């Protein structure tokens, strides 16, 4: 309730992997879970984690809670990119940190699908299907399987 995000369904992940590539991969796997995501995070990795989450999950609402149930308890809420920017410019956060990320909304998923489709249209104009899929998957953090399926839809739509 403190985070201001839905609590009817949630998934507790604990700590994400410390390496960026593994962290982004795990976030991609968690992206389709239809519930609020809950993580623990190290103060040293908080800014990187939020930046990766914003890149992979998009503009979902989030909250960073520090020192819960203690005298210096703080909660900062906002879109993931705003939270990432705040903690990148700040001295290292201290204390026990919990990051809560809201569930994907239908409008978020549709917007992500449209963005992938638009990027694929541009990439397919100059690249082979395989190269375009690899490029767009790397840019968006979406699984190659999903990007490939969307690319096949686009090639069937255009004569």
Outline of the structure:
This protein has 159 residues and is of the alpha+beta class.
Which SSEs are present, and which pair or pack?
Blueprint: E1 10-15, H1 20-30, E2 36-41, H2 46-57, E3 61-66, E4 74-79, H3 80-88, E5 97-101, H4 106-126, H5 129-140, H6 144-157
Helix pairs in contact: 1-2, 2-3, 4-5, 4-6, 5-6
Number of domains: 2
Q: Note the run of SSEs as H and E.
A: EHEHEEHEHHH
* Helical segment count: 6
Question: Quick one: CATH superfamily of the largest domain?
Answer: Tetrapyrrole methylase, C-terminal domain
What name does the CATH topology of the largest domain carry? Methyltransferase, Cobalt-precorrin-4 Transmethylase, Domain 2
User: What structural class results from the helix and strand content?
Assistant: alpha+beta
DSSP, total strands: 5
Helix content: 40-55%
Shape: elongated
> For the residues shown, what is the average pLDDT?
85
Q: Look at the structure and give the CATH class of the largest domain.
A: Alpha Beta
Distance between the termini: 51 Å
Classify the beta-strand content into a percent band: 15-25%
Q: Using only CA atoms, what is the Rg?
A: 17 Å
CATH level-two architecture of the largest domain: 2-Layer Sandwich
What would you note in describing this structure?
By secondary structure, the chain is α+β, with helices and mostly antiparallel strands. It has six helices and five strands, in the order βαβαββαβααα. The model has no long low-confidence stretch (mean pLDDT 85).
